[in-house]
Amino acid sequence: MNIFHISAECYPIAKVGGLGDVVGALPKYQNKLGETSSVIMPFYNNKFTQSHTFKRVFSGRFNLGRPFGFDILTLEDNTLGYDLYLVHIPDLLYTEYVYSSNDTERFLGFQIATLDWLVQLKEQPNIVHCHDHHTGLIPFMMSQSYAYHKLRTTPTVVTIHNGQYQGWFSHNKIHLIPPFDFSKAGLLDWKHLINPLASAIKCAWKVTTVSPNYMEELKYAANGLEDLLRYESGKCVGILNGIDDKIWDPATDDNLIQNYSIKTSASGKKANKQWLCKEFNLNPELPLFAFIGRLVGEKGADLLPEIFNNSLVHKNLSIIMLGSGDSSVEHQLDQLKYQHPGYYNNYIGYNERLAHIVYAAADFLVMPSRVEPCGLNQMYALRYGTVPIVNKVGGLKDTVRDFDDNGFGILHDGATVHEGSFAIFRAINFYNDTDRFKKNRNLIMKIDHSWDSSAQAYINLYNSLIL
Fold first, then answer.
1. What mean pLDDT do residues 190-203 have?
2. Confidence bin at 18 (pLDDT 50/70/90)
3. How many C-beta atoms lie closer than 10 Å to residue 7's C-beta?
4. CA spacing 20 to 30 A to 400: which of 102, 125, 183, 258?
5. Would the pTM of this model clear 0.85, i.e. be above it?
6. Residue 467: pLDDT above 70?
């Protein structure tokens, strides 16, 4: 089966969030299962593209108000585990950033160039798998635009990684979409705007989300798409994401201060914790709580300053925060360093190596998310023997069970300061039950959240469309 994943992000080429992790892993695991799975994404002028060499496999031109030339480039000396194709449009995409204020034109150009290349391939795709709204117009164009008539019978799948972002733009720009029967324009529209994600839901053969629970949540909270998702529920399915257990493996992770397995988890985590606490002036004898992620409302980041302040008053824990986002939240979190020296510290920004060390060093990972389609952080934490503290939403609810309910993590019911603070209180009591806590660490490191079963679930879905 010839599968093309089309995405704005893909780790390690360009990653902003979980979308990049998923697209960087899923095709690799599908190839291991005997399929031919590739990735198509924009060419960004970043560290990855600057440090690798590429060869051109196709050149073309398209019109987006004016002519644009583009090249399809492929990675030489590829060790990613899948074929990578980059759409190089110098006048639109040659930037170091993934997202910007003119993304309508940037990603529409990317989608058009992608289809201009796919339509002329001798070996046509068996499946075109689109990820999020940045590629959401592809199912419409494949089925409706005259230029891509050859692709109209190719099955399309769209995966919603985050339904809050939909790529809306005005009907004034409808002329930028390659010509189609205008009587079909309703397939683009949702609430008087062109809505790429809504169009993808209408036009794709199957719609997936990154966890079963998130699919159900979207039918009642999807930033305006609830009715559409309920109407199209017959073609919707939730498939839980996995993690790349070759990258996220404490036994082999080159980022760590000391590697460890289940048998050596106590000494390994202690070594990483001691290093981290020394670097950030924290007490390694106390339970270490961590937050890693974007400081945005969806992640419950606005709750963190008060939750942390409430907990730090008792001087019986240490907290490390790694992330960036809302400047007001950044400032409030930064102030905690001066209010609670020796017990709290942070790193404003993102550092991939430091993130790995934090997962290894921490005893608990805090995730008070309001929205979490799947969540990968809690899976990384479990893999590294770190107990997740999560709000009962989306994929968090699918992957974490409370230790008081024959489980292994800590759940709270609602993204509030009270719930988050009480969850940390419960965690400290759990930590102080030394024998139970150590047994739990060994248990959670055995949980399998690899991509193997998820990759097979997607292959089964594809086969249902082809056969």
1. 98
2. confident
3. 26
4. 258
5. yes
6. no
Q: For the residues of 222-246, what is the DSSP string, one character each?
A: STT-HHHHHHTGGGEEE----B-TT
> What tokens were used for 233?
């529920």
- The reported pLDDT for the residue numbered 17 is 83
Complete DSSP assignment for 276-308: HHHHTT--TTS-EEEEEEEESGGGTGGGHHHHH
The tokens describing 81, both together, are: 């585990």
The pLDDT of residue 245 is 87
Look at the block and give the residue holding tokens 């974007």: 294
Summarize pLDDT for 132-159 with one digit per residue, the tens: 999 999 999 999 999 999 999 999 999 9
Strands annotated E in 54-122: 54-63, 67-75, 83-88
CB-based contact 424:411 (threshold 8 Å): no
Residue 430's H or E segment, with its range, is helix 417-432
Q: Which of 78, 81, 379 is nearest to 249 (CA)?
A: 379
Please tell me the distance from the alpha carbon of residue 303 to that of residue 364, in angstroms, as a whole number.
17
**C-alpha angle 161/48/130, rounded to 5°?**
25
What is the layout of strands, in order, in the sheet containing 83-88?
54-63, 67-75, 83-88, 36-42, 2-6, 127-131, 156-160, 206-209, 236-238
| Other C-beta atoms lying within 10 Å of the C-beta of residue 467 | 5
All structural domains of the chain? 2-242+451-466 (3.40.50.2000), 265-444 (3.40.50.2000)
Rounded distance, CA 419 to CA 245, Å?
32
Q: Is 274 exposed, middle or buried (0-12, 13-18, 19+ CB in 10 A)?
A: middle
Three-state secondary structure call for residue 266: helix
Model confidence over 393-419: pLDDT tens digits? 999 999 999 999 999 999 999 999 999
Please, what is the Cα angle at 406 between 403 and 408, to 5 degrees? 40
β 193-194/344-348 pair status: unpaired
